[in-house]
Structure formats: structure tokens, C-alpha cells
Amino acid sequence: MKRRPTFLITVLCFGFAFFYIPILSMIVYSFNASRLATVWGGFSTKWYVSLLSNQNVIEALLLSLKIALVSATVATILGTMAGIALARFSRFRGRILFSGLVIAPLVMPEVITGISSLIFFILLADWVGWPGSRGFATITLAHITFSMVFVTTIVQARMQQSDRAIEEAAMDLGSRPWQVLFDITLPVISPAILSGWLLAFTISLDDVVITQFTTGPGSTTLPLLIWSKVKLGVTPDINALATLMVLFVGAGVLVAGIIMNRADRRRLADERLAYRTNG
Which of 69, 159, 256, 273 to pair with 249, CA 20 to 30 A apart? Predict the structure, then answer.
């Protein structure tokens, strides 16, 4: 009995070390003064300064953020609608087909999704003349299609865990379905919606495979820029750029965690107040 917890703790520590030590080493070597990424030449912040003056990096970053913001927002709206429909409407015509379409992108390789998106945009350009060229619009549509699935899954799981009796009680008291949706359902599942948005934003921000098939000349996102640079070898400026991305995502996760914890506490306090009032 004493060996088993020790073994599990050892495996857990090894797993965390295997994952986080390379990230920490990348952060440390981003301050390397040497041009060789694996040879320490002293402490320096010149690679961060050079990134601020690199116009290609700034343009790629702005494009990636714009695509991620738009795709995450639209995917969250559509995914929330789909998740509510799957959780609350157990029987409707085409539900099995709809569920299959939702699950399919989760198990389908990204390269297949990228190729199918590319073929679709080529055929669409032949049929209606749009898109004239692949870029922001095509990348955003492809990211919406892929990331919407994750939002749907998260919202559906949260809806299935929520107490449906509260919604039914509100309707018994005279509330209309739209009032129940905006006053009760959406506030209850708001942490799941926020989590879905963050996941969709992160997926869009760091996607490489699907973006490669749906982009065109002059529309290089930040992950594609990093990928093209890494082909020639890892340099300290790549370490600095990756470090900034890690810090940005980490700060976003931290802020989202604080917001969701406050929302859960507020929701629990409101439920307790309602039970005390009715009791």
C-alpha cells in the first residue's frame, strides 16, 4: 500500500517534468545572447527587441489574433446553439445525423479537414467566383468549422449537468422560452461558454495544418511563420516569440480561471438565496 502512492507520484512528476522542462528551457534560452540556440552566450534581451522591429512578425501576429478572435466568437455562438439543441431536444428529425456531424471532426485527422476545405473553396470559386483568393476569410471559415465542435461538446456536457427543474419552474411561472434562455440557461452555462471560447481561440491561434491548406500568398499567420523559420533551424528569436505566446496564453487561462471561479461562486450564492426565499 505504501509503494503504490510513491510510484504514482513518481510517474506524475516525471510526466510534468517531461512536459514543462522543455518549455522552461525554451524560455531560458530566449534570453541567450548567442545566435546559437543551444549554446549559452550570456544574458540578453536583444531578441525580444528585434521582434518588435520585425514587420513580418507583427503582421503575422495581428492576422493570427484577428482570425482567432473572429473564429472563436462565431464558433462559440454556433457551438452554444448546437450544444443546447443536443442537450435539451432529445428527439428531433435528423438528430443522429447532426450528432455524427458534430463528432466527426473530433476524430478526423486535421490533414483531411484541410484538404477537404481546400477542395471546397476551389469548387466554390469555380461556381460562384468566391473566394477570389485564399486568405483571411477562408482561414477563418475553416477554423470556425473545426473549433465549433469543441464548443458544442463543452456546452452540451455542461447543459446535461445543469438542473433542468429551474428552467421548468421559470416557465411554469410565466416566463417565455427566450426569457428562460437569456435569464437562466445562458448565465448557468456561462463558464462553459467562456471555456469553449478560450479553447476555440487557442486552437485557432496555434493551428498549422488546416491553415496551410486554406491560406494564400500574403496571408501568413504566426504559427506558419514560426514553422517556416524552424525549418532552417531553431534560433533564439524563435524562442523569444514562442515564449511570448506561452505567456500570453498562460495569462489568458489565469484570467479566465478567475472569472469562472467568481461566476460559479455568484451562481451558487444566488441558488442558495433562491432556495432560502422559497423555503
Answer: 159
Give SS3 for 234: coil
Cβ atoms 220, 190 nearer than 8 A? no
Of the candidates 200, 181, 238, 217, the one whose C-alpha atom is nearest the C-alpha of residue 79 is: 200
Q: In CATH, what number does 56-278 get?
A: 1.10.3720.10
Spell out the per-residue pLDDT of the chain, length 279, in tens. Answer: 445 578 788 888 888 888 888 888 888 888 888 887 777 888 888 888 888 888 888 899 899 999 999 999 999 999 999 998 888 877 777 778 888 888 788 888 888 989 999 999 999 988 988 888 888 999 999 999 989 999 998 998 888 887 777 777 777 777 787 888 888 888 888 888 988 998 899 889 889 999 999 998 888 898 898 888 877 777 778 888 888 888 887 887 787 778 777 777 777 776 677 667 655
